[in-house]
Amino acid sequence: MKKINLVVLFLVLVQNFLFAAQPLRTETSELATNFTLLDLENKEFSLSDFKGKPVILFFWTTWCPYCRGELKQLNTMHTQFLQNGVELVAINVGEPADKIQRFARSYLFSYRVLLDTDAEVAQAFGILGVPTYTLINKEGHVVFNNHYFPQKKYKGLILK
Question: Among 18, 91, 111, 119, whose Cα sits 20 to 30 Å from the Cα of 97?
């Protein structure tokens, strides 16, 4: 019975990994879904507040080791984004606010962190795993959606 349980657990984990590893549509042109979420200071953030400005959405979780590395990298890149007129927002997916508050104390984010506790925004953007970057140009169109940051071509995608 124990072997059967282990086999079933293994198959479920493999299936979840394969689901999360599905390739995303890298470049799209669909209009970004507007949303409103609370940040770590309990202030509302709406995507529509940044109409006419390019936005990078970074979907992440605390338990994702890749996300942790990306969060640190984004801290170093945040100044560059601001200089280019790009808004950066990290959206935690599906975790309670108190957990993110504790996590944030050790990361000292230089950018806004939003709480998508029920994962509705992630679902609206078709997020199939974390980390995921969604780039939105100044016209409000999703121009990139994938598990990596397109360092060499992001300016051409969102600063057109």
Answer: 18
Q: Where are the domains of the chain?
A: 26-158
Instruction: Say which CATH superfamily domain 26-158 falls into.
Output: Glutaredoxin (3.40.30.10)
d(CA 132, CA 24): 9
What is the mean predicted confidence (pLDDT) over 117-131? 96
Classify strands 112-116 and 36-39 as parallel, antiparallel or unpaired.
Answer: antiparallel
Distances (CA, A) of 122 to 32, 37, 153: 12, 11, 24
pLDDT in tens, 30-59: 899 999 999 999 999 999 999 999 999 999
Whole-number Cα distances in Å, 50 to 7, 36, 44, 155: 48, 12, 13, 17
- Note if the pTM is more than 0.90: no
**Closest to 128 in 3D by CA, of 40, 5, 17, 28:** 17
Separation of CA 59 from chain center? 2
Give the CA distances from residue 93 to residues 27, 42, 58, 89, 138, in Å, rounded to whole numbers and listed in that order. Answer: 22, 16, 10, 13, 24
